[in-house]
Design goal:
CATH superfamily of the largest domain: Winged helix-like DNA-binding domain superfamily/Winged helix DNA-binding domain
Structural class: alpha+beta
CATH topology of the largest domain: Arc Repressor Mutant, subunit A
Mean pLDDT: 84
Distance between the termini: 39 Å
Shape: globular
Radius of gyration: 18 Å
Length: 143
């Protein structure tokens, strides 16, 4: 069973309905290498012959967010983009070609979260790091 089928089964086991739109959105997110915008999701749903308006798409995304199946990514503080929750990672965006790369950072972040708790009393539940630069192709330099 692939990860998409596992996620669908997980939804069923938790008693959630598997609508065409919900299944279509998950299929899109599982097949995408990068976070996806609502407009792109709508376009791809149409290609799948799934007629869903923006309100329905936002409602489904909200459901998937609240239940921990997907994450909301906001790069450049612009439009929200969505991806499957898989493992903790961050993103680097090329400012020229707009390509998004996934990166993993070491465990020092946990140390910072503990320091924040100790110094402020605030327990960190999430954080967001955004990195911007120019990829090797756009920069025309070898890294």
């Amino acid at each position: 069973m692939n990860k998409f089928d596992q996620k669908i089964e997980e939804l069923r086991e938790q008693g959630f309905r598997i609508t065409k739109t919900r299944k279509g959105i998950l299929k899109i997110l599982f097949s995408s290498e990068n976070p996806v915008s609502v407009m792109h999701i709508k376009k791809l749903l149409t290609k799948q012959k799934i007629d869903a308006n923006k309100t329905t798409i936002y409602r489904e995304l909200d459901f998937l967010l609240k239940n921990g199946f997907i994450e909301n990514i906001k790069l450049d503080n612009k439009m929200a983009m969505y991806e499957i929750c898989s493992h903790h990672h961050h993103h680097v965006k090329c400012t020229k070609c707009k390509k998004i790369f996934e990166i993993e950072l070491d465990e020092n972040i946990k140390k910072h979260e503990k320091k924040i708790l100790k110094e402020t009393g605030v327990k960190v539940f999430s954080h967001m790091f955004e990195f911007f630069g120019m990829c090797e192709t756009c920069n025309d330099m070898k890294i």
